[in-house]
Write a structure and sequence with these properties.
5 helices, alpha+beta, FAS1 domain, 7 strands
């Protein structure tokens, strides 16, 4: 799929990422500013609205900007380089927040920690988006 604007524009227009877009734009100005820059060129593992709805009730407060954890959660979904799905090998990646995430490939399925990649390689003018079915949890959970 060809680039149809920057990462933020694609998230805004797609219709599956309203919650993620709102978190980035309204709650985390640093992440928004970094993602809006033309030199960004990172990979975003983008949870759908359904993925955010499935977050357990006792963890939903972590998605509030006032929790102090929101940036850590969002950072876990971004890697420091642009990676097409075919380049995602089983092993560890380091997120932009410095936290490791585990990539596993099995029977044609790609997982990032607990999340399953459900659509790969949405190209943006400043990065690449992989759609995932869950909010990525830390490895120790």
């Amino acid at each position: 799929m060809g680039a149809k604007g920057g990462v933020l524009r694609i998230l805004e227009k797609d219709g599956r990422f309203d919650f993620l877009f709102r978190l980035i734009v309204e709650e985390t100005s640093f992440v928004r500013d970094v993602m809006a820059s033309s030199g960004w060129n990172h990979t975003l593992f983008a949870p759908t609205d359904a993925a955010f709805e499935a977050v357990p009730e006792d963890q939903k407060q972590l998605l509030d900007a006032g929790s102090g954890k929101l940036i850590d959660i969002l950072d876990r979904h971004i890697t420091g380089r642009m990676l097409q799905a075919k380049r995602l090998r089983s092993g560890m990646l380091i997120s932009i927040g410095g936290e490791p995430v585990r990539i596993s490939r099995s029977d044609g399925e790609i997982r990032i920690n607990n999340a399953r990649l459900i659509q790969a390689d949405i190209r943006a003018s400043n990065g690449i988006i992989h759609v995932i079915d869950a909010v990525i949890q830390p490895l120790d959970e």
